[in-house]
Amino acid sequence: MTGRAFVFGDEIDTDLLAPGHLMKLDPDALASHCLEAIDPSFASSAREGDFVVAGNNYGLGSSREQAAISLKRLGIQAVIAKSFARIFWRNAINLGLPAITLAEAGEIVAGDRLSLDLAAGRLTNETTGRTYEFAPFPDHLTAMMRDGGLIAHLKRRSADAQPETGAAA
């Protein structure tokens, strides 16, 4: 899938992604306020398959998983950053949102068209022609993200493990 890059700087905290004073809103309403403090048009402009690109320590702050949920609700296919706050990274992966550490994230500019091959560990900037390599996720995490996150993955595995029932012939 190919999408546009929305680029942000360092230290993007979870309160910018899911503002604390709006936590009582339903997930879609909360997502409509994602990153509005630094880009008021982000939530209304983001489309399915777009990317968020950022600098260092993306997702610092509280452990609220609504930060990653808001990005998923907006259709963001992956977050690419120079580094992540540990709890945001884990929440994103558990929710099926790839969080990719890329030292060269600062080379990507707003509006660049990106394509991602998660299994190969490859991000291509279609605008510049530059390809970036990153350490692919382990197979178990790739499968979990492909299934839509931890809960969906566990449900699928549980369903796969159930013996088929049917009338005996």
Topology:
Layout: E1 2-7, H1 14-17, H2 27-31, H3 42-45, E2 51-54, H4 66-73, E3 78-81, H5 86-94, E4 99-101, E5 113-117, E6 122-125, E7 131-133, H6 139-146, H7 150-161
Written overview of the protein:
With 169 residues, the chain is α/β, with parallel strands linked by helices. It contains seven helices and seven strands. A hairpin with a 5-residue loop joins strand 6 and strand 7. It starts with a strand and ends in an 8-residue tail after the last helix. The mean pLDDT is 94.
The main sheet comes to:
7 strands, mixed
Radius of gyration, in angstroms, nearest whole number: 17 Å
- Assign an overall shape: globular
Order of helix and strand elements from N to C terminus: EHHHEHEHEEEEHH
Amount of helix: 25-40%
Number of strands: 7
Report mean pLDDT, rounded to a whole number.
Answer: 94
- Terminal residue distance: 46 Å
Which residues sit in consecutive blocks of at least 5 with pLDDT less than 50? none
Give me the secondary-structure category. Answer: alpha/beta
Strand order of the largest sheet: 4-3-2-1-5-6-7
Q: What portion of residues belong to β-strands?
A: 15-25%
Count of alpha and pi helical runs = 7
Compact summary:
The chain is 30% helix and 17% strand. With 169 residues, the chain is of the alpha/beta class.
Defining traits:
17% strand, alpha/beta, 169 residues
